[in-house]
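User: quick one, fold this
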Amino acid sequence: MKNTTDNKIRIHEYDQREVQFTVRLLLVLNGGGIVALFGFLGQTWNTIPNIRRSILISIALMVIGLVFITLSSIIRLRSMHWHLMGKYPKNRLLRIFYHHILYIHLRTLSFLLFCSAVFYLIIKIYSFT
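Assistant:
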């Protein structure tokens, strides 16, 4: 009995490290992308006026990705609290949060928004040249 409990704890600790890495990676990708695009926007503001809108759209997509990854972290912390306390919510919507459905999808959406912003900007820059 004790061996299976130890295995569950090890798996849970591994999962924690993996999730922390993923969240940090998405925060750096989206946040770094926003900073880089603001720098790029400053350089091209007067020289290439047609690209301003494309850069602002890419920045908006990455900001939405940052919001999603932040919400994912908040929901995950809340579900870990429920799990550790052993008090599961009675509300059906909150149980969905607990079962990790929402925060996993938010992480996925955050990554997809980052990729969409980068690809959108590449396509627009290519079409301007």
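User: anything notable?
Assistant: The chain has one domain: 22-128.
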